[in-house]
Amino acid sequence: MNEYLVEITTTVPEGTPSEEVDRRRAAEALRARELAASGHLARLWRPTGELRSIGVWRAADEDELHEKVLGTLPLRPWMTLTVTALEPHPNDPGPAA
Asked: Considering its fold, how many domains does the chain have in total?
């Protein structure tokens, strides 16, 4: 699987009932756990003091990433995404793939 750095900013549309926001956030947490268990979500961070997230996601290609991974997130209609394809760096001190 290929790895992608994904920056996500979620903006709740004005006037959305709080019950809808709560329902989607709960469903989002569940879906994130499912995607982590399947190996598609490797890591996820929230920059201190910000309402956005940065994560390392895995998929066969960008089509799968957008359609079958990120596209399945309950909050996706409210998200703005920046996707950067990653490749190993020769000086990466981490474990080999």
From this structure: 1
pLDDT of 5-20, one tens digit each? Answer: 999 999 999 999 999 9
Which structural domain range is residue 54 located in?
1-14+40-86
Q: Is residue 35 part of a domain?
A: no
* Average pLDDT for runs of 10 along the chain of length 97: 97 97 97 98 95 96 98 98 96 77
Q: 1, exposed or middle or buried, with CB in 10 Å at 0-12, 13-18, 19+? A: middle
Complete edge-to-edge strand list for the sheet that includes strand 41-45: 41-45, 52-59, 2-10, 79-86
Pair of tokens at residue 70: 């990120």
Task: Indicate which CATH number applies to the domain containing 70.
Answer: 3.30.70.1060
- Calculate what percentage of the chain has a pLDDT beyond 90: 92
Q: Residue 36 and residue 18: Cα distance in Å, rounded? A: 27
Helix (H) or strand (E) holding 5: strand 2-10
